[in-house]
Amino acid sequence: MRRYPIHDDFKRYARLVPPITRQALPLLRAAQRLLPLPSPKKADVSLRRVMIRQGVHSIEAQLIEPMKHSDPLPALVYFHGGGFVLEAAPYHYAMAMTYAAHTPCKVLFVHYHLAPQHPFPLPAEECFAAYLWTLRHVKTLEIREGTIAVGGDSAGGNLAVATALMARDRSILPPCAQLLVYPVIDHRMQSASMRRFTDTPMWNSLLSRKMWQFYLPSLPAEHPEYASLLLARLCTIFRRPMWKAHSLTVCTMKGSLTRRRCALPVSLSPCMRQKGRCTAMTSCRTVRSHRTASRSGSLS
């Protein structure tokens, strides 16, 4: 972590990386429920629980309304982040309350079903259903017509974009605006930052890879660049030079690590800065330098 200029306000989280696994997710969700939620009264808003029907599922949502403003008001249908796998955290509620009180507007805070138990397309369909429900209840909710926006952070930003596209494709009145806070909208993960930030605290590209695999289970278990990301992470942990990485006794099959020695996939070769020939058991190809591969942007 020393190579990242982490601000002092964030130092308390500098060693925190959530374990996003099927076994750990129930514990993470249970821990989240123990956290205190922000007070609506202090935020000058009121909360009202609503239930939205979507097929055989019921979608729970909360309608957040500012106290000191008269109706009708604009509305924001908001989808929280959490990598598609975690419930809303206290700061999600705090952001939604801030939007409601200071815009001012009414915020429909949607609790969509989570992956991996409920992968795509169910969360996207539920978020679209919440938007459609808001459109159909403009008068009863006292919302100003034509002023319904969608928004979300991280995975919620993805769901907001999906909702807007679904409205367009299904000939439904589109949202008047989109509020996208660091949305995740590219599952290919081929950008320079995704290759670089493999071990940042709180969240990093390796966790994003797991997130996408939970939400889109049809993706291959191992993308071509996944092994390179994993190797970079291991080199950081063990503080080893990249050119010596071929000697690590790890197995990257399906993203798991084992004690047995195995050959590294050819896709790892761009991360090895060895001149000459690769010593991996399955390959004797000449290995290009990491610097050359980085300039070309190639992972093959």
From TrEMBL:
GO molecular function terms noted in the UniProt entry: hydrolase activity
Domain Alpha/beta hydrolase fold-3, residue spans: 76-232
Organism of origin: Amedibacillus dolichus
Keyword Hydrolase: yes
Keywords recorded for this protein, A-Z: Hydrolase
Protein name per Swiss-Prot or TrEMBL: Alpha/beta hydrolase
Keyword Acetylation: no
